[in-house]
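Teaching note: in complex prediction, the entire set of molecules is handled at once rather than each chain in isolation. The prompt given to students was simply: 'Predict the structure of this complex.' The entities are:
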Amino acid sequence: MSGEPTRDEAGDDRFELRRMLRELEDEASEKPQSTVRVEQSEILEIIERRKKRDPHG
Amino acid sequence: MTTSRKSRVLLVDDEKHVRQLLKAILMPLNCEVVGEAENGVQALTLYKDVRPDVVLLDINMPVRDGRAALRDMIVLDPGAVVIMLTSMSDLENVQGSLDDGAAHYIRKDTPPAQMRELLAGVLKERFQASP
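The expected output is the structure of the full assembly:
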């Protein structure tokens, strides 16, 4: 019998997603950064400030 | 009846596993991946061909990097909606990309749930008319 995804296959997908996420995190920590890293929360603040300064930008 | 059109997305990243992860993140967001590119040159060619609604663009890529590809796309289409999705998280790249016309900037190490939330926010802001 085949065709229908099984619980095991769904679990495999989640496992694969976690593995890919770990690879991404490893990649981010390995790549050289030229200057101080900006946190995502700071990036959002920068974007918000820009929107306020130039709402049509 | 809910028949809102799917947002057509071009994924640009030299690493296949990143593109796979992005597809999984985009899946619940009413998006259709209309193209995948591994560098800035491929990205621009595909952009011309498929005219996506949104581009998710890595920076650190071979042949032509994402910063150059962003500038190419904005010159070609000043209304292009390009979201930088990158492991480069220094202020120069963040500010420079936004100056060059990027719609948003997301770090690749952002947890998938938050990444999905950020992408959903951009799609909502850009493509859904307010009631």
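Point out the following to students. Chain B has a mean pLDDT of 91. The first helix of chain B runs from residue 16 to 26.
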